Amino acid sequence: MANPLFIKEDYEEGLSLARLKFIEIIMGYNGADFTHLPGYVRCRIHFALYDEMKKAWERENNEAALPTGDETEAAFADNLIEREELAILLRLALKKLTEKQRRTIKALYFEGYTGKELAAKEKITPAIVSKNHQQALKILRSKIA
Question: Which terminus has fewer CB within 10 Å in the chain: N or C?
Fold first, then answer.
């Protein structure tokens, strides 16, 4: 099953492209034919999205081929082990942070808050969020690297 995060990102990217194409069409429209405008707009947006999808498929197909057979299983196992080791290191490093620093890292990186949103949520200034963020990153770098 596809990762919902990727689906949401792809959807929002497509929506942004459609909005830009719509604005482009309206800015270039001469106002001569209002009857056919909706069909014209729909067609142009459809083909803009289709062209972008074709480009994305070509990029995917041009990337390096995946390993086959035993190589795939070995690469997958190695990758899984490395990810697990990194996850353990991250958990240990997060324990070295203060509670404020830990909340800041979790909110910014795992929960998707921006600095301003976190500041409003925590009722602190964005400067304090930035300070906690920088201190936490410094500690994490020293513990993980």
Answer: N
